[in-house]
Amino acid sequence: MQDEIIARLANALDAELIAAEARRAEHSVNPDVMDLYFQGKRMDGEVASTRERPGARSR
Predict the structure, then answer these.
(1) What are the pLDDT digits (tens) for 37-56?
(2) 6 is in which domain, residue-wise?
(3) Which residues contact 46 (CB under 8 A, 6 or more apart)?
């Protein structure tokens, strides 16, 4: 049950963060920069998790 609660909170927080970053990017001179930045951060996290868990696969 705790795992389900944590998963729901994480999903809700993720959606809130995405919406907040989208609002912030609207006022940016070049909104693509923020998009590319977050894509890079996601890819870096995927690579790091595969290094930490040798049996893990990246997407």
Answers:
(1) 888 888 887 766 666 666 65
(2) 2-52
(3) 58, 59
Calculate the alpha carbon distances from 37 to 32, 33, 40, 55, 59 in Å.
8, 6, 5, 27, 18
pTM of the prediction? 0.38
Count the domains in the chain.
Answer: 1
Task: Read off the tokens for 13.
Answer: 């927080």
In terms of Cβ atoms closer than 10 Å to its own Cβ (0-12, 13-18, 19+), residue 35 is middle
For residue 58, the SS3 value is coil
Q: Is residue 57 part of a domain?
A: no
**Residue 30, in any domain of the structure:** yes
